Amino acid sequence: MEYLIGQRWVSHADAQLGLGVVVEVEPRRITLSFPAVGEERTYAIENAPLTRLRFKVGDHINTVEGVELVVTDVHEQHGLLMYTGTDHHEEQIAVSELELDAFVQLTTPQQRLLNGHFDKNSDFALRVATLEHTDRLQRSPASGLMGSRTSLLHHQLYIANEVGQRHAPRVLLADEVGLGKTIEAGMIIHQQLLTGRASRVLVLLPPSLMHQWLVEMLRRFNLHFALFDIDRLAQMDEGNPFEAEQLVLCSMEMFEANDHLQQLALDAGWDLVVVDEAHHLHWSEDEPGEDYRFVESLSQVSPGLLLLTATPEQIGQASHFARLRLLDPSRFHDLEAFKEQELEYRQMSAMADALEAGTVPEDLPADLDRSLPAGELVNQLLDRHGTGRVLFRNTRAAVEGFPQRILHRHPLPVPEEYAHAQVDLIERLHPELPYYDDSWLDFDPRVEWLVKTLKELRPEKVLVICAHATTAVALEHYLHMRAGIRSSAFYEGLSIIERDRAAAYFADETNGAQTLVCSEIGSEGRNFQFSRHLILFDLPMNPDLLEQRIGRLDRIGQQHDVEIHVPYLEGTPQETLLDWYDRGLDLFRDSCSAGTMILETFRDRLVEQLKTRTEAFDTLLVDSADFTHRTREELREGRDRLIERNSCRRDVADALINEIEGLESGDTLENYLEALCEAFGVDQEFHSEQTLILRPSEHMLTGHFPYVGDEGTTVTFSRDKALAREDMEFVTWEHPMIHEAMDMVHSTELGNAALGTIKLKGVAAGTMLLEALFTVNCVAPKSLQVERFLPLTPMRLLVDARGKELANLVPHERLNSLVEKVKKPTALAIIKQVHREVDAKMSLAKAQAEVRLKEVLTDAENLMRSELGAELARLEALREVNPSIREEELENLRYRIEECAIHIAHANLQLQALRLIITT
């Protein structure tokens, strides 16, 4: 190769030097200046790590003056390359290679390959795998649903899929206690964020649920919400603090009597607003409460709205109407009209019952075809249901899988120290509270009983819950230090990481704690259904809190009956409260979503009996039992079973579960993550089956690998293990670690150019094969979800010396197993000899890919118009009989169809990777 002053060369030993220019040529040495870094380098001519930079027609080049040109002609003049190109004004400009910008980056596969910038064949394979996995995930009907640390439950997945795919969903989630409304909301938020339908989310909560939501969103969905309170807002800079974060958790109480804060929240602009415990919003036709008016204002300026509430009938039809009115005020504007329509919907529910029993009702709507199968007629009734699109409610009666509850009462004598204490009611329910030290542990009979019971239950896992953190800490310390029982504490004074460690220690089957002692927060957010024994060291005054405590074990997925142990001091308010819960409300055997309402009904009478128990207590028990029975019956009889059918269609949920389980089965994801770690220099260590420990190393390709901390990160691919071990990252195809690592491969040149040799029988040595990988490049807003119809669609071509396409004969995996590494000097020598052949084979490969692209784009547009068009036609027809379908939804569908068509039409090919293979 002849070197001349003024020629431009690149160093394949150090691409960061940029574009060099020859400034001195000696018989055996050559000196280049690299203006981009202000350095000169001298090389021995015989082994200089240099490649002549030659742009081709169609390439984009930049001059030192910052002019970008598209090359239209290249010729050589006195040993220097001369480029002719057009600028953005379509004017022709001629420049020599001397005028090229030194800050050149060779990132396209062809540029890197022909200029001697090679990657490992393993990196090439990783790039191909990344594109293929991305394509598969884009095509999956479970997209957006597989990344959550949750059990795959039919009703939750169905609701998340049905609501999460909507544009600006506005729905009421009203599942009964224990069915996971928070999880459903999290899954919807997660899918809306992943698919680009939402980016800013505000969640409004009662103060008691703030920590639970923060933990649930982080641990289950990897969603990092910012928790806003008065103190944080006071410390923030000027401007609107709500604009500083995308995902925000706030207490409803923070906005009470604070018009300024309310206005800031309204001005911030949210894609989705979520309100938990929405049944607490105060509303009447005459005078809505301030909290209701604030949420109403938010609902008017925010496209999406999720309301979470207890069973709607729990607090009356008017309150139920008030919540629906927030979702769609034009549809739900008159309470009396709503009551009349609800009666009609109850009749539809009866029709559905009759159809499923094999009878076609006489009063079936006239526009329904009576000859259709019963299942199709039921589906049409579900579509017509007035609140079926805005209200979702599943009941424990309809959802299978709940265990039985068994109560064990353990009466204990009152110690002398407690008997003579003159304390208030709360301290009589929790007599250890007045003690500033731990001396009560020595005489409280509940402590001795607890130690004895835990030893008898060994090796069973036992969850202990008490009301106060001081009690929990003292008990755990006693069990651990004085009774020799493996235990852990879980209370509000711990950080989130410390709570995770405590929960993980309890969950560990081999070397973990036998018992976890929790304060009241132990009944919020965490699920311990791997345990079946629950000890209630004391009882809360609120029936809903008691239900929450039991609900930590009484959940779908519990494999055993839940054994509830209650030690209590005889003849004290503890026994009275236990009797009221047990004999009055029957809460230990049957859940009740109306606990707060029942408490409010009998609060005064109950408090009097807790202070001094009299004969009137028997009357209170009878009245409470009768009222609770009637309330339960009203809730059961008042259930709208049509809504329940519409809240979980098992065939749809089954298909989603099968898809997710299929993606999680096998070791494909584990192998892919190991390949990522190998490429990026992350150390891996086997932890246990389907579990790895990842640690950063000194040889990492980048300074950071997502979700791998300085101390390392333990990851599991097992959903069951992840549900029991919240200290581990549950890695799925939608975990941010995988998602961001895939982006790191996509957005860099890693693996996009490689060279290797291969031995093939019957093929002459020196034969060249060019393996090219193209994908479809469609630039479109994420919210359109064009990839549903036009995914990456990797196109692999393998062109031989005669231009024949061999990809089907020699699969990529087979080629990977045969290809061998080539030493760098040999590879560079090969490249210098095959420039023209590579260009020729590249042209052949691209021409074949262009032919495939036309068919792919046609199929994509047809699929898009078929799916979205069918949904639009269905909703337009249904809107005639179901006014809860909003015009905004229809307009968005029409817009999506036209915009998707435009972007699909403008899609083109993108060359993702090239590998040159020489036979030996």
From TrEMBL:
Domain Helicase C-terminal, first and last residues per copy: 446-618
Motif (DEAH box): 276-279
GO terms classed as biological process: regulation of DNA-templated transcription
Pfam families with a match to the protein in the record: Helicase_C (PF00271), RapA_C (PF12137), SNF2-rel_dom (PF00176), Tudor_1_RapA (PF18339), Tudor_RapA (PF18337)
Keywords: Activator, ATP-binding, DNA-binding, Helicase, Hydrolase, Nucleotide-binding, Transcription, Transcription regulation
EC number: 3.6.4.-
Domain of life: Bacteria
Coiled-coil blocks: none
The keyword Disulfide bond appears for this protein: no
Boundaries of every Helicase ATP-binding domain copy: 162-330
Enzyme category, top tier: hydrolase
Residues that bind ATP: D175, E176, V177, G178, L179, G180, K181, T182
Family recorded in the similarity comment: Belongs to the SNF2/RAD54 helicase family. RapA subfamily.
Function, in words: Transcription regulator that activates transcription by stimulating RNA polymerase (RNAP) recycling in case of stress conditions such as supercoiled DNA or high salt concentrations. Probably acts by releasing the RNAP, when it is trapped or immobilized on tightly supercoiled DNA. Does not activate transcription on linear DNA. Probably not involved in DNA repair.
Subunit structure and binding partners: Interacts with the RNAP. Has a higher affinity for the core RNAP than for the holoenzyme. Its ATPase activity is stimulated by binding to RNAP.
The protein's name: RNA polymerase-associated protein RapA
Organism of derivation: Halioglobus maricola
